[in-house]
Amino acid sequence: MMVTDVAHTNANVGLKTRRRRRPTWYNVVFSLMGIIWLIIAFYPVFYMLMTSLRSQQGYLLGIPWLPSLHPTFENYGTVVQAGFAHYFLNSLIVSVCSVALIIACSLLCAYVVVRSRNRIVRIIFDVFLVGLALPIQAAIIPIYVLITKMGLYDTLLGLILPSVAFGLPLTLLILVNFVRDIPNELYESMGLEGASDFRLLRHLVIPLALPALISVSIYDFVQAWNNFLFPLVLTQSDSSRVMPMAIVSFQGQYTMNVPVTMAAVLLSALPLILAYIFGRRYLLRGMLAGFGK
Amino acid sequence: MGSGMNWQRWLMIVPAVVFFAVFALFPMLMAVYYSGLTWNGIGSAKWVGLLNWGNVFHDGEALHAIVLTVEVMVLSWVFQTPISLLLGVFLAGRQKHRAVLGVFYFVPLLFSSVAIGVTWSYMLNPNFGLVDALLKSLHIGNGNQNWLGNTHLALLVVSMIIAWQFIPFHSLLYQGGVKQIPDSLYEAATIDGASVWSSFFSITLPQLKYTIITSSVLILTGSLTYFDLIYVLTDGGPGNATTVLAMDMYKQAFVNQNIGLGSVLAVILAVAGVLLSILTLRFTGFNRMESQLEGM
């Protein structure tokens, strides 16, 4: 960590001096491309925001690419009245429970994978690695049958259980890589004092692996929050509806009322928008979890 | 304590193993079994062996879905890789305005595929959509192009929206990759009088080799799983112009209630996923991907 930080500072200085020396045509072209991409990437999001602040009348008659002169928050009221607080809570329950279970199971498992040389444990870990490759779509038909037979169709628990199973492989892989980096001497010195596995986990592994735990929790939260296939196949009624499903059924209901639907879309991304505003680095790092470290 | 296995340790791995076995592995094996059944999911099932496998390829629909999936793969790679690479290089520079631009670049990552699909379907609407209104005011085209309703355009447009959604993610990967390149390489090149072009092609690109492979494999494996966005944007249509493999699987199993045919397609998806991932491990290995996040 320390070494790379120093290297980056040097790189930083190096880049700055180099750029200052030659502010040439390619810098101009590059910046221009950067601005064009800014418009392509951000303008649709800006469109969501300004449309959500229009009245239906204003949407049909106004200039679509400019913000309304008389912004209104009415659409957000409509969305809340349509039961979105309930759907939001459902999403929150499913996501938080899934993340908690994924992290707890993977952390315990990662500890054992790192600390023991047992052959069966090796094989189990290899099976999890194969699991990384399996698309959720490939298992959805039997999952539907299984959840129905368990009597969990159309319940939040029926969404949580398969989400945990499919969240495990990547989370486990990342945590194993992290726990592996903890020096063996630390385990040994605590082990000599007679510390149990659970004590080692609590006082050594969790504190040292905290950055990884946060990153991977964010990744799992985003996955659970935005998951659409499980709710589409495994739920039906209003009482177990989660945010992505709510948007789709809302769009069907208010086909022509674009401003209200845009307000619903923005509310559906609210936790991630807040996370981005307050902890941009953490969120981006979390979303890249597993593909970087 | 040592490194052996006591009952405590067996207990510690039980939850993960049970979850994974019951809700992932077992369903995957069941999919293979279901592919040999004639079953609507409710009534009694009948074992028919490989009949579904024959039927699924007989009418050409499955082949069509496979071809579309490969097309989406290729289009995704072609749209996403060059732009992500350039953006990553651009953002790895340290000027202040880049940091500000970067904040806005990654906002699309905050929205689910459903949210993105709904928004784009409104923006592309031929009657009241933003895109046609803009083109009309700029006097480009006739102003009422049916982007998603046109058989020849739909898959292209869907792939472009997919690119819009995922380019931010891949440019983050490249940004991390560029920051790992030792600055001394560029300094040496500058002293040798290398142009910006030649240092890009002889230093940046070769140094990003593993990032390019990682990102490409993620694009290819990801292409198998595009479902949410297509479901919202076109529902596989018009006709079956955007019915990729995952979409076809969903339709067969949950709309036509033909569990057997759907399962055949599910098994094909799983096999394709595993094959692509074996390639991942062969070419990259997870160890080589370490530490791309540092310096973000």
TrEMBL record, chain A:
Stored Pfam families: BPD_transp_1 (PF00528)
Membrane topology field: Multi-pass membrane protein
InterPro entries attached to this UniProt entry: MetI-like (IPR000515), MetI-like_sf (IPR035906)
PROSITE patterns according to UniProt: ABC_TM1
Location in the cell: Cell membrane
Predominant place of localization: membrane
Keywords, comma-separated and alphabetical: Cell membrane, Membrane, Transmembrane, Transmembrane helix, Transport
Protein name: Carbohydrate ABC transporter permease
Provenance organism: Alicyclobacillus fastidiosus
UniProtKB/TrEMBL annotation, chain B:
Membrane topology, record value: Multi-pass membrane protein
Family: Belongs to the binding-protein-dependent transport system permease family.
Keywords associated with the record: Cell membrane, Membrane, Transmembrane, Transmembrane helix, Transport
Transmembrane segments: 12-34, 62-91, 103-123, 153-174, 210-233, 259-281
InterPro entries: ABC_transporter_permease (IPR051393), MetI-like (IPR000515), MetI-like_sf (IPR035906)
Main location: membrane
Every ABC transmembrane type-1 domain range: 66-280
Protein name as it appears in the record: Sugar ABC transporter permease
Compartment(s) where it occurs, according to its Swiss-Prot or TrEMBL record: Cell membrane
PROSITE patterns per record: ABC_TM1
